[in-house]
Amino acid sequence: MFGTSHDLALLRNWAESCNVPTPEESRDDLAIRLFVYSLLFREVDGTRSFQGCSFTRRGPMVLLVVKSIEGEKHQVCYTTERSAERCIVAFCRSYLEGRTKWHLDKYRQD
Questions:
Q1: Tell me: the pLDDT tens digits for 58-97?
Q2: pLDDT at 22 over 80
Q3: Cα dist. 88→27, 73, 107, 109, 110 in Å?
Q4: Is pLDDT at 1 greater than 60 in this prediction?
Q5: Residues 82, 60, 32, CA angle at the centre, nearest 5°?
Q6: Nearest to 66 by CA among 39, 44, 46, 99
Q7: What is the 3-state secondary structure (H, E, C) of 79-100?
Q8: In whole angstroms, what is the distance from residue 72 CA to residue 68 CA?
Q9: In what order do the strands lie in the sheet with 73-81?
Q10: Phi, psi at 71, each rounded to 5°
């Protein structure tokens, strides 16, 4: 199953697991709220801590770079979409489905 209803179900399940109330809101609004309040600057799965993110316009597309630390490794995950909101939704979807691809952050290695 794919699409908005699939994304919304993933996000609502995630919100429930974090004890976050989910009033009727759009997929994008819920994804942004959960991304900012439940992921950034918190340890999320006992091993990974998200350290921030950045958005960059690349022509008609937007690049989201999520920075994290897993153990002693600084890592980044890249997501490209048509808008910042869609980047967040796409990142949340891939994270919740266990499909994020993390790469060593060549600028933050000690």
A1: 899 999 999 999 888 999 999 999 999 999 999 988 888 8
A2: no
A3: 10, 23, 23, 25, 28
A4: no
A5: 30
A6: 39
A7: EEECCHHHHHHHHHHHHHCCCC
A8: 10
A9: 48-58, 61-70, 73-81, 103-104
A10: 65, -115
- The size of the chain, in residues, is 110
CB of 101 closer than 8 Å to CB of 93: no
- Segments making up each domain of the chain, as ranges: 4-104
Our measurement of the distance from residue 11's CA atom to the centroid of its chain's CA atoms, rounded to an integer in Å, reads 11
Backbone angles phi, psi at 81, to 5 degrees: -150, -175
Contact, 77 vs 91, CB < 8 A?
Answer: yes
Residue 98 has φ and ψ, to the nearest 5°, of 70, 30
In whole angstroms, what is the distance from residue 36 CA to residue 88 CA?
10
Asked whether the beta carbons of 85 and 64 are under 8 A apart, the reply is no
For residue 41, the 8-state DSSP code is: T
CB-facing half-sphere around the CA of 51: CA atoms within 13 A: 15
Q: Is 12 helix (H, G, I), strand (E, B) or coil?
A: helix
